[in-house]
Amino acid sequence: MREKIIQTSIYLFDKKGYSETSIQDIVENIGVTKGTFYYYFKSKQELLRVINLSYIEGILQKQEIILKDLTKNYSEKLYDIIYMVISAIKSQRESARIFSREMRHIHDSDFELVKAKRDKFRKNYQLMIEEAIAKGEFNNNVRADILTFGILGITNWSYYWYDPDGEVSEEELANFYMELILNGIGNLEN
Q: Which fold has domain 44-183?
């Protein structure tokens, strides 16, 4: 039942927004009482924290596995992380949108916990880019911090528009992003 509450809440928070979704909406959608909700969660706030932590911890764990892979160069790791984010759209689109849109509703220490994990994901990306620059694999005229925010921006925004069942495959989109990041949009022949 706990997982059903979480999944229903993800659907409703994504569709209506956290503020516009009541505990009554959640329990009515499932067909249970508020007592059932409170058996598993102290509050809607706790539920939002659980949803956000589950999402960020999952992608952070996958990112760290990719970064520790000694058989791949930095470009391959960058591709793998971008692909991981893009391929998660099919299964985690709603959770990702809730994470980016509703995090502002998390209070105090819970906010700091979620923010720290979000920042770790960004810092892992940036450290990888800094290492790639230092080893000569990436251009040393690039600011790793700005590039990191740019990559996060284009990949995270994909949760709002990309259709994994549409005409562009996950691999094609990841390859497009890699081409854009590594080579830009300039026409070097002119």
A: Tetracycline Repressor; domain 2 (1.10.357)
Give just the sign of the alpha carbon dihedral 167, 184, 129, 101.
negative
Tokens of 101: 């849109």
| Distance from C-alpha of 45 to C-alpha of 68, rounded to nearest angstrom | 34
Within the chain, how many helices (H) and strands (E) appear? Answer: 9, 0
d(CA 190, CA 181): 20
Determine the Cα–Cα distance for residues 96 and 10; give it in Å rounded to an integer: 10
In the numeric block, the tokens 């598993």 are attached to 40
Q: What are the structure tokens assigned to 22, written together? A: 């009541």
- Percentage of residues of the chain with pLDDT beyond 90: 76
Q: Where are the domains of the chain?
A: 1-41, 44-183
Residue 166 above 90 pLDDT? yes
User: How does pLDDT run across 121-148, given as a tens digit for each residue?
Assistant: 999 999 999 999 999 999 888 899 999 9
Cβ-Cβ contacts under 8 Å for 162 (sequence gap 6 or more): 86, 89, 168, 173
Assigned superfamily of 1-41:
Homeodomain-like (1.10.10.60)
Say if CB 156 and CB 177 are below 8 A apart. Answer: no
What pTM, to 2 d.p., does this model score?
0.87
